[in-house]
Amino acid sequence: MNPPMPVVLPLRAAQLAGLFLALFGLLAAPCPLVAAQELKKAVLIPQWEPQAQFAGYYVALAKGFYRQRGVDMTILRGGPKSPPSRLLADGRATFGTFFLATALRLRAEGLPLVNICQIVRRSSLLLIAKKDSGIRDPKDLDGRKVSMWGPEFRLQQETFFRDCGVRVIPKPQGFTVDLFLRGGVEVVSGMLYNEYHTILNTGLDPDELTVFPMDEHGLNFPEDGVYCLEKTWHEDPALCRAVAAASLEGWKWAFENPDKALDIVMSHVNAANLPTNRMHQKWMLARMQDIIMPPGVTAAPGSLSRVEFDAVTQAMHRARLITDIPSYEAFYADPAQ
Known about the structure:
There is one protein chain. This protein is an alpha/beta fold. The chain is built from 14 helices and ten strands. α6 links the parallel β6 and β7.
């Protein structure tokens, strides 16, 4: 019987500010407001619909952090119909957010992505089942219906299934967990900061659920990072560093001013007419702080360590999800260089 999922309290703002300071020493310091004619236009596409998962970018836009660093930023509405891979490939976006595993898979398939800022340090991806379905251990997943998002979001689960030696019946998963709640699938994909909280809010208790956190099964893949194409990085590294620095400043401000950050997030949510509420977004923002600055991590914010890179590439190669592994130096644009 699995214990209830632990909830890690967010770090104090003072601790967080000290951690962020390390990377700010490597990146360009905030600049005076740049004249409009000097601003460089850029477009960022998050990998999903507006929500607190992307609070730092919305804050950086609203508070003028991109503009202070010489960037005239536009943030597009993401989601299944606007995958960042497609928009970067056809030139409609300059930067996009991806899970690390997704970016590695896309690079192996020919899209020359470069990581310019690793935001999320820890995986929050889960597989969730009801205990009354008889699912208690990974082996119980064999032959079960499992809902998953599109190809860009299911690489950890595919690695997990192969590592556990089980075959599942995959079903498409959209914006809601309704199919799971109505019994259409026995297992649903979820993020700790999103679907897990939604399921609890329907009245199910943690002890009624079997939860498989990917980070507890050897698949602690860092998730959201900011990426661009190799061409962008090589032609304008200053622009890339400015976007990375402003994005990190946005996250720092959001964690220090959560209520005001939620006001900004909800303006994007409401503009997109999405079925969510401020309470859920508040939970999401707090959980984002947990995974962006998890306890015990001393790496500079925004950095991607070689250890993290090697762990993910080796796991994906073992699961035969990638055959070609890029070099760390080619894949990660170190802001110190």
